[in-house]
Structures are given as structure tokens and as C-alpha cells.
Write a structure and sequence with these properties.
The chain is mainly alpha-helical. It has one domain. About 75% of the residues lie in helices and about 0% in strands. Strands 1-2 form a two-stranded antiparallel ribbon. The N and C termini lie close together (about 5 Å).
């Protein structure tokens, strides 16, 4: 027999609107955070007196490239969190106040990420900027794992989800941590190389996805075990 589902906002019920509001709010926070990343790039662009001179414009861009690099890395890093969060929401059958509270912690870190991203673009030669950025991303990953753990413990995920599938999502949520661990020591040797280490989460996630459990088989097994 399937375990009873606790009270909360269900995906398909009269309170389903509350479930959708939580998803829309999360998407909005991600979208705003990713958009704010471009502001330091705009601010870093100096005023060019001679707009008709290609060489003058190119010279003015010299000081902007670190901010541009930080923007794209920050965009793809936050984008990776959004992709994972989107997939995670697809597994949920309900949410409750506890889930929403943890979600606020996670989204607060996501909304904060434009600031450390600005630091690595503005002070790219200072390893401390990489350490602060890594710390913020560490908090984001830990709060994401907290969400997954809470949802599984509170029976908010699909009832037929198996331990291998659950472990896969935990491992996928922890994937960015590998990049952070490498980025900090590398940053003390070369800050630009340390910054690029954050992109390691994408190939690591791809490797983890290759070992994705067969969810259809998992669902069939769950149905077979349910009298």
C-alpha cells in the first residue's frame, strides 16, 4: 500500500494553484538573478569619447573582458541550478510550508549570486573573490540537497521513486561541489583558471546523467510492489 500523503499543496487539486505559484516564484527569482548578472558588465564599460574609432572602442573593452567572462560563467552556473531545480519540481507531487521555507533559503542564495559574480569580474586577480564565490555556490548546492532530502523524507516525491533514483538526484545536486573544490586551490595559482573551474559542473553532470537509473523500470517496480 502506498504511504499516506501529508497535508500540503498538491499538484492536481483545488490547491494546485499554490503549487504552481511556488514554481513560478522560483522561476522568477532565477530569471531576475540571471538578468542582474549583466549590470556589472554595463557599469564596467568606460565612456568612449571617439565612438567612430575602432581602436579606441577595442581599447576601452580591455577592462571589460573579465566582467564579460564572469557574466557568462555566472549565467551558466545559475542556469545549471535552474535546470536541476526544474527537473526536481517535475518529481514533486505536493509541497508544504516546510518545503517552502527551505526553498526560500535556496532562492535567497540564488538571488545573492550576482554579488559574488560581480566580485570575480571586478577583482578577478584577487583569489579571495573566488573563495567568496565558491562559498556562495557551496551554500546554494547544500540548500538544494536539503530540499531534495526534505521532499524525499516528507513523501513529496513520486511515490514509486526508488533508492537508486533518489541517490541519482542527490549526486546530481552535488555535482557543482566538485568544481568548487578544484576552483579554490587553482585560484591561488591563476584566478582566471580558477574561475573556469566552475564550468566543470557541466561535464560532471553529463557523466552522472549517463548513469541515470531507468526511471520507467523504477516506476514499474514500484507499481509491482504496491498491492
Amino acid at each position: 500500500m502506498r504511504p499516506a500523503i501529508r497535508r500540503g499543496y498538491h499538484r492536481s487539486s483545488e490547491s494546485g494553484l499554490e503549487f504552481e505559484r511556488a514554481a513560478f516564484f522560483s522561476d522568477a527569482v532565477f530569471a531576475i538573478a540571471m538578468t542582474l548578472l549583466v549590470i556589472p558588465v554595463i557599469d564596467a564599460m568606460p565612456h568612449v569619447a571617439d565612438n567612430s574609432s575602432i581602436s579606441t572602442m577595442w581599447h576601452a573593452l580591455d577592462g571589460v573582458w573579465p566582467s564579460i567572462l564572469a557574466f557568462f560563467i555566472g549565467f551558466f552556473v545559475i542556469g545549471r541550478y535552474w535546470v536541476a531545480h526544474h527537473a526536481f519540481f517535475g518529481l514533486l507531487t505536493k509541497i508544504d510550508r516546510g518545503f517552502l521555507s527551505i526553498s526560500l533559503v535556496f532562492l535567497a542564495v540564488i538571488a545573492f549570486l550576482p554579488f559574488p559574480t560581480f566580485l570575480v569580474g571586478h577583482d578577478e586577480s584577487n583569489p579571495l573573490s573566488i573563495v567568496i564565490y565558491s562559498g556562495a555556490l557551496l551554500l546554494a548546492s547544500l540548500s538544494e540537497l536539503w530540499l531534495i532530502w526534505y521532499a524525499h523524507r516528507s513523501e513529496m516525491l513520486e511515490s514509486a521513486i526508488t533508492p537508486p533514483v533518489y541517490r541519482y538526484y542527490l549526486l546530481s545536486g552535488a555535482a557543482p561541489l566538485f568544481g568548487f573544490v578544484v576552483a579554490i586551490p587553482v585560484a591561488f595559482v591563476d584566478t582566471s583558471a580558477g574561475l573556469l573551474c566552475y564550468l566543470l559542473s557541466w561535464p560532471i553532470t553529463a557523466l552522472i546523467d549517463r548513469r541515470h537509473p531507468d526511471e520507467d523500470a523504477a516506476l514499474d517496480a514500484g507499481e509491482a510492489a504496491d498491492p
